[in-house]
Write a structure and sequence with these properties.
heterodimer; A: 253 residues; mainly alpha; globular; B: 306 residues; alpha/beta; six-stranded mixed β-sheet; four-stranded antiparallel β-sheet
């Protein structure tokens, strides 16, 4: 019994040595049920009357799956290098930092697109879902989403470099996308403040374009997010990297 | 211009001075050792040379490139073995590891170069096995192969033989010698004084962040207070016995006591008498030539006290 309690105590001590653990225990309990709560509200009649609820859910969840896979890829790979012990060796090479960071993300973007295509095909076969956008619009939305996804990835990678274990912060970002972007329910059924959060997130416009919204305007907004988030990610990471090299914490995890 | 030049290099972490105005150089084809106790500042110096840590003040250059201001050019000239076997991808094969790093260093004809260094390190026949199946010695040799990929002028080896069995360690030391013979500069950190004695043309002892001695092992040994070491093998030693020097357990209840002495013929009887009166049993006594470890123990002690 003492060994069991010692193990539990060790885990609690270790987990709360990383300050972001508080985010997980304070915010995730409300974020997790929120998406289902709003979906139920939409099903009860509060929605915007999207004609095909199956296409709505499948398009939302598949795009979410792709974003989810790729936006954490950069930070996740960096974290793996930290804990595995290969980060210093990579960082001692002359390769550009952006190439070291974005290489794994490029692979995940491709793999994620394949998974998304498989998901769409299987949904059509099994659930008779009609994908709500043309392939041209879908391709344009995905192409316009790659840069902002990389930008979010760079911001999360900067957090990893700075604070090491940032799983809770990542869950916070994931939770915000999940609840506020209209993945499983229309943004219109969200409370006003959450609609405001959704309007500041690029995935809201990606989903809107795929679901038959004004794709020209949505793509323009996505391009603006691309520029802003890529620049933010690059600047943030460069600043954090310099600070980490000053502190001698490149290989620390 | 020397391949490695370090001038007044200083690193401060808040109030703590980790490296204090360290200066040295290493010539082409030289094996230069950085020695010192844990926390002395060796790793901090090494990480500044690799560009993983920014100096507070001072300059370090690799093949003439300032590691802080022209980091990319400096990294092209430097191959580093840091972190030993953990610095490899265990779920890739030896060859896949090298091809990945060859891409990071922009190596021309990477497949041929990877095959060449794998052969050189004796890993040609195991090149397509996952690294997780390699022994510790093979992983260390693969790490050395990786740092040779871009044919750098300077090699930085951070404890390359740590954890190796004697045969693997000897193979690696032979390789280090032949690399230096090819004209590469090797900067080596190690805790094994015999290894430093055998390999290094010159060594710098670091203690408390400062270089407390820098010269060839032979000169450093001659400079030690006495010309010889009085070596006593005793049983029944206790830390509170009034004897000079530190005793080291050598197994079967026996301890080794090493004391520098200018006149060992006069000092040995005094030591034997003192040990006997203190209740220890002297099993063996002799005058021996000092080793680099004797220099290390004396200098590290002085540095830490300072």
């Amino acid at each position: 019994m003492s060994a069991l309690l010692a193990g539990a105590r060790r885990l609690i001590l270790t987990r709360f040595r990383y300050s972001d653990a508080w985010f997980f225990y304070l915010l995730w309990p409300v974020m997790f049920p929120a998406a289902y709560l709003f979906t139920a509200g939409a099903l009860a009649g509060g929605g915007q009357g999207f004609p095909d609820y199956r296409a709505y859910i499948v398009s939302g969840t598949l795009l979410w799956m792709w974003v989810n896979l790729t936006c954490w890829s950069t930070g996740g790979a960096l974290r793996q290098e930290q804990t595995g012990g290969t980060l210093e060796t990579n960082w001692a090479s002359p390769a550009p930092r952006w190439a070291l960071l974005c290489g794994p993300a490029v692979a995940d973007i491709g793999l994620g697109l394949v998974a998304m295509a498989i998901g769409a095909a299987e949904s059509t076969l099994l659930f008779h879902v009609r994908w709500p956008a043309s392939w041209a619009v879908t391709a344009a939305v995905l192409a316009a989403s790659v840069p902002w996804v990389l930008g979010v990835g760079l911001c999360l990678a900067a957090l990893v470099f700075w604070a090491k274990d940032v799983a809770s912060m990542v869950n916070l970002v994931r939770g915000l996308f999940m609840v506020a972007c209209g993945i499983t329910c229309p943004v219109a059924v969200l409370p006003g403040w959450l609609q405001a959060v959704g309007s500041a997130l690029p995935m809201t416009y990606a989903l809107d374009a795929i679901r038959g919204g004004p794709w020209g305007a949505d793509l323009a907004r996505l391009l603006a997010f691309d520029l802003g988030l890529l620049a933010l990610g690059a600047i943030l990471f460069a600043a954090v990297e310099r600070s980490v090299r000053r502190r001698g914490a490149v290989g620390v995890y | 211009m020397h391949p490695v030049e370090v001038s007044e290099l200083t690193k401060r972490f808040g109030e703590r001075l980790a490296v204090d105005r360290v200066s040295f150089h290493a010539a082409q084809g030289e094996v230069f050792g950085l020695l010192g106790p844990n926390g002395a500042g060796k790793s901090t110096t090494v990480r500044m040379l690799c560009g993983l840590l920014l100096p507070t003040t001072g300059v370090a250059s690799i093949s003439g490139h300032d590691v802080a201001r022209h980091a990319v050019a400096a990294r092209h000239c430097l191959g580093a073995v840091l972190g030993g076997e953990r610095s490899l991808y265990w779920k890739l094969t030896g060859r896949e590891n090298l091809l990945y790093f060859a891409a990071l260093y922009g190596v021309a004809a990477p497949r041929r170069r990877a095959a060449d260094v794998l052969e050189r390190m004796g890993l040609g026949d195991r090149a397509d096995e996952l690294v997780e199946r390699y022994s510790t010695g093979m992983k260390q040799r693969l790490a050395l192969a990786r740092c040779l990929l871009a044919e750098p002028a300077v090699l930085l080896l951070d404890e390359p033989t740590a954890g190796l069995d004697p045969v693997s360690a000897r193979l690696l030391r032979q390789e280090v010698r032949s690399l230096a013979a090819e004209g590469r500069t090797v900067l080596l950190t190690t805790h094994y004084m015999e290894e430093a004695d055998e390999l290094c043309d010159r060594v710098a002892f670091i203690a408390g962040g400062r270089i407390v001695a820098l010269d060839s092992p032979a000169v450093l040994k001659r400079r030690l207070g006495g010309e010889s070491i009085c070596r006593l093998e005793v049983a029944g030693w206790r830390p509170d016995l009034p004897l000079p020097g530190e005793a080291v357990a050598i197994g079967d209840g026996r301890w080794e006591l090493r004391v520098p002495a200018a006149d060992p013929a006069a000092e040995l009887p005094r030591l034997v008498d003192a040990a006997s009166r203190a209740g220890a049993t002297v099993l063996r006594c002799e005058a021996v030539e000092p080793t680099l470890e004797d220099v290390f123990l004396v200098l590290a002690g002085q540095g830490l006290r300072g």
